[in-house]
Structures
1.
Amino acid sequence: MCGTDGNNGVSANSVANGAFRPSNPYQPVGDFLSNVGRFKIIESTLREGEQFANAYFTTETKIEIAKKLDAFGVDYIELTSPAASEQSRLDCEAICKLGLKAKILTHVRCDMRDARMAVETGVDGLDVVIGTSSFLREHSHGKDMVYIKKTAIEVIEFVKSKGLEVRFSSEDSFRSDLVDLLSLYQAVDKVGVHRVGIADTVGCASPRQVYDLVRTLRGVVSCDIETHFHNDTGCSIANAYCALEAGATHIDTSVLGIGERNGITPLGGLMARMVVTSPEYVKSKYRLDMIKEIEDLVAEAVEVNTPFNNPITGFCAFTHKAGIHAKAILNNPSTYEILNPADFGLTRYVHFASRLTGWNAVKTRVAQLGLVMTDDQVKAVTAKIKALADVRPIAIDDADSIIRSFHMDLGDRAPVKQNRDAKQNGEAEQIKQEAKQNGERVPVEVEIGA
Ligand SMILES: [Zn+2]
């Protein structure tokens, strides 16, 4: 599919998923490789996530998670190997029977016995993996590169003969010998593997290393490139992003990033990154408003809390506190927000119960409470709130009480009062609904956020 923009003659390259990326003679080489506007997600909560220390998923929970991920729009759902246990095999079959839109994969060792069992479960494809670093070759499976290459080709040809998709990945790719790795990937590309995988199994890679390796690999194979990043050094989202910039096509994620040790690239965090880079692609493909319910479901299943600083859903992700920030946010949310909470079905909150508050935030709160004051009166009550907040931490109710009693004391000096009370008559909810209907960039959060 090719197209030409009639206005400026800029051509658009043919890309997967019907998305276009503009090109012109002055773009740097990197932009031609970049897939930031046309990537696919391989969601591995039900494989990598099952390796999380707290994870124990019943069949019902697995099905519930799979259905939600499917509704969200992930391209693939990866499941634990059926060779892991009898229940794992049964769960794999049960999820395959759901008839989801997402393709179902299972993750198996590069071993004919595992591959034979996996192809009988009804999956759409196999993610085949073997360790290639000298550490793993010496201390884990004990096989050399000649054996690995021979077995890989045998397994790939077998899976393809069954009409299924197959990915071949090394494990611990960033501590594997580059020449070994490239010649192995070249060999599996030649026999028609659908994807090769790069896995930062130990979480050691930096974004620049990722960019270099993926870009080098992009020049060696013609198949898709899947990437898998552990978060031991906090780089999992940045590494995924750099991999896409360098030409990777698929990113592995898990909900809340759960996985072995401290996990992998989180689905929500990756969405936060990518919606900033490629808003149209991300918003048209993924149900961003489902992130919170999916995270809540998984958090409950594995008995953890969503981290306070989690992208998008951390409790303070859209809370603005300092007076200067609050004033600007109330005028135009883009001043201090790169993400729009409305895109995720969420609302922002301007914190007004603190010593850092400013009168603009308090003015908004006064209006939410259905009260009317002049600016000078709002400034006076703001001074009272700040004075108390200097003495002790205050709650929203404390600040509201100060506002209400100040307003009552105004008596005749108060401007004409609107006969409504946000808390009592459900006004807050009504304003919230109106705000949602008005679409994005509604300047004032009305949720109390107790
Ligand atoms: Zn992993």
2.
Amino acid sequence: MGKRSVSQFLTYQDCPERWRLEKQVGVPQHPAVWSPAGSAMHYVTEVWERDRLGGTGKSRSDYLEVFQVDFDARLQAEVDASGIPLAQFRTTNKTADQPGGLDREWWLKSSGDLLDRYTSWREETGWEIAISKDGEPGIEYEFIVKVPEELDDRPEVTLVRGAIDRVFTGLPGFGVVAYDLKYGSKQGDLLQLGTYAAVWETVSDQPVNAGGWFMGRKEGNSGPYHLGAVKEWRNINAAYRRLDLAIIDGVFVPRFGTNCQRCFVKEHCSFAQVERSTLA
Ligand code: SF4
């Protein structure tokens, strides 16, 4: 197996058949509005954090423009790559009042509230951004880190890569915490936070005892949670190793059901569950 990544683990957890179709077969993915929207929210909050750390700042409307420019650029890139027009991108939460679901217009209209929710949360907590040994701030921190050699000395499987959305200090009783930002409805997997904690301890020498998810479209955040054994390299390594073995053995059990509604490859999946409907 090649390098391990947190996102590959999360895709497999979501649906092993989806992992096979996306990563092994390489079928084209049907674009969805929520992906570039979530990425653009990550980006604008990153800009806000870096400005804050540098003691500067922009007006709220400037930050909203940062969001819009980045969002539209990402949407256009997906149109160009897929050949699918924006009007056919997948959306969530379709209702009689909002037949187009959470489309581009909804995200633009809501971006002010979503940004306010993040900045208020940050100001209310009073937490500060943690800094690594190399002076890098814990903001969208990209990493490729070696699993300790005593756990796995095969060179081809000793790397884990990913990006930690935020690392904060200043939480009484928790110390340093790793956070992931979510703009969908589901929180992530604890192994994701455990991996982030182990990585940040490696690059900072700061103990990370907890982690959580900032749920951008909901009130408040989820966590922080004590990470305990999930941040121990031996457990992290064992979990990724089992993922390797499952893939080598071709274990791709489909998790069809509500997952299918948000799946990027459902057009190519024989297990795809049909859209929700009533029998009436
Ligand atoms: S359509 Fe459903 S079963 Fe098929 S890959 Fe997607 S989530 Fe899995």
3.
Amino acid sequence: MPMKKRKSKKKDSQFLEILAAKARKSPAFDSKASLLEQVLENLLSEGEDRPELARSVMEGLMKDFVDWNEARVSAADRIVPHFSALKDPEYKAKAVQALLGKIFSRSGSLEHQFLIDMETEALEDYLAGIMELREDTRKNLMLRVMNRPTLPITARHEIILERVGTMFTLGDEQIKKTLLEHPPAVLDGIKNLLDTVLDKYCLDAPRCARCPLKPVCVYSEDHG
Ligand code: SF4
């Protein structure tokens, strides 16, 4: 049976209001570190229950390699073991090397001031050009480290939109405009909330009783 959809845009805006109200900022990264180190730490902490592990992996890398450039060019069998305490170590090792490689290819160094200077749209395109970076990783970097507004809803969240019963889609320009009126910290909180709802409650068989989106969710209404 097709999923029931809400009939009014007003309901959609209530859904967005709940997201924004429940949004919580992620833990801050070490603001004394360089932007590059903050980017790498954010990437390594993605999906981790204990984000502090990312910092200890970074410290281990810096003990074993002369600098990030050596890590960039090292063979997988030398670099991947450093990531073994993290979830998805091979992806994270590849993503780090690809990111460093992309920065290096611009000027033959890891100087990255240009990332700070880039317009938001250009930065989004730049990160999208690194095939090894998942969409989620790119959004996290934009929102958490680079403090840029970007749409916090990704393709993996579509199942939530459908179950909640929203009328909008990822291509909906009005929703995009409404969401992007929020500052990056709130957008980051919205993404966190959607990630939590998806991974903890909604993926596979929904467990609605404790889900924070229950008050606005059509699926939950229909399935008790
Ligand atoms: S209330 Fe249930 S169906 Fe709705 S988003 Fe939460 S877990 Fe998914």
